[in-house]
Write a structure and sequence with these properties.
Layout lengths: L1 E12 L2 E12 L3 E6 L5 H8 L7 E6 L2 E5 L8 H8 L2 E4 L11 H13 L5 H22 L15 H14 L4 E5 L7 H16 L4 E4 L3 H7 L2 E6 L2 E7 H6 L4 H11 L3
Parallel strand pairs: 3-8, 3-9, 6-7, 7-8
Antiparallel strand pairs: 1-2, 1-4, 4-5, 9-10
Helix pairs in contact: 3-4, 3-5, 4-5, 5-6
Bound molecules: adenosine-5'-triphosphate (ATP) and magnesium ion.
């Protein structure tokens, strides 16, 4: 069953059309890698999925629920966008952790804020917060960071910070976890540790959309690959097929730039 269906997404910034009609679907438990040169619209697409940008046309469905329809303003009410955004988790290139909070606090903050909305919050406060801390610790442990729970972001390496950011995104149990070049701010050693964590999530059948420049990673870990160029999907298909045997000339040209690298 398709968990995510994106149909005909267009996005203009002023006179420039950055997304020219993007359609794809993603099955539950699958990982989709999005590749493409700089400026092709990859980040804009992820931002549209997370309601950080409003598409000019198109629809977004998650689990058959119409979350967004550019033609239907009732799907765009500010109040509901907050709830709809919870279907998606987002991990950014630059981590975006809260510097004043520890690793554990970064992971649990959103859960603790939402617990306040519960009718039994006043009576069960201590118990609920302990439970949330337990969930946060379990996520940090899964990321190999149990020992770092009380560290602040400035006390962590880039790779560790990014793993905290992944734990934070997972805490809200999104239907689709999105990554925007999660390793491009990291040096090769730290890149490896973050890619290992994402590979582990893929093995656990986490539904993911991963914008990446790591071609070998996309080929080995993703189920599907989309190659974007100039705001359109030029080619899409099974990851290994697209990366090893692209059918489109533009895809070939793009991939050949990676093949030349040592
Ligand atoms: N807020 C904005 N206002 C105006 N133009 C924008 C805005 N955001 C992005 N763009 C333009 O849209 C185009 C696509 O940008 P986008 O960031 O989506 O590309 P990308 O594929 O993620 O590139 P990169 O690989 O460098 O991250 C670029 O030409 C960019 O300058
Ligand atoms: Mg980008």
């Amino acid at each position: 069953m398709a968990i995510l269906e994106v149909d005909g997404i267009k996005k203009d910034f002023g006179p420039t059309t950055v997304l020219k009609g993007i359609s794809f679907s993603l099955e539950e438990g699958q990982a989709l890698a999005i590749i493409g040169s700089s400026g092709s619209g990859k980040t804009t697409l992820l931002r549209c999925l997370n309601f950080l940008e409003t598409p000019d046309s198109g629809t977004i469905r998650v689990k058959d629920e119409l979350l967004f329809d550019a033609a239907d303003p009732t799907t765009q009410k500010e109040r509901e966008i907050r709830r709809k955004r919870l279907h998606f988790g987002m991990v950014f290139q630059s981590f975006n952790l809260f510097p004043q909070y520890t690793a554990l606090e970064n992971v649990t903050l959103a859960l603790k804020l939402s617990a306040r909305e519960r009718p039994d919050y006043k009576t069960r406060r201590r118990e609920l917060l302990t439970e949330i801390d337990g969930q946060g610790m379990a996520l940090l442990e899964m990321m190999g960071l149990k020992e770092r729970a009380e560290h602040y972001p400035h006390q962590l390496s880039g790779g560790q910070q990014q793993r905290v950011a992944i734990a934070r995104a997972l805490a809200l149990r999104p239907d689709v976890l999105c990554f925007d070049e999660p390793t491009s701010a990291l040096d090769p050693e730290l890149t490896g540790e973050v890619l290992r964590v994402i590979r582990g999530l893929a093995e656990k059948k986490t539904t993911m959309v991963i914008v990446t420049h790591e071609m070998a990673f996309a080929r080995d870990v993703a189920d599907q690959v989309i190659f974007m160029d100039g705001g359109v999907i030029v080619e899409q298909g099974p990851a290994r097929e697209v990366i090893e045997h692209p059918t489109q000339e533009r895809t070939r040209q793009f991939l050949s730039r990676y093949a030349e690298q040592p």
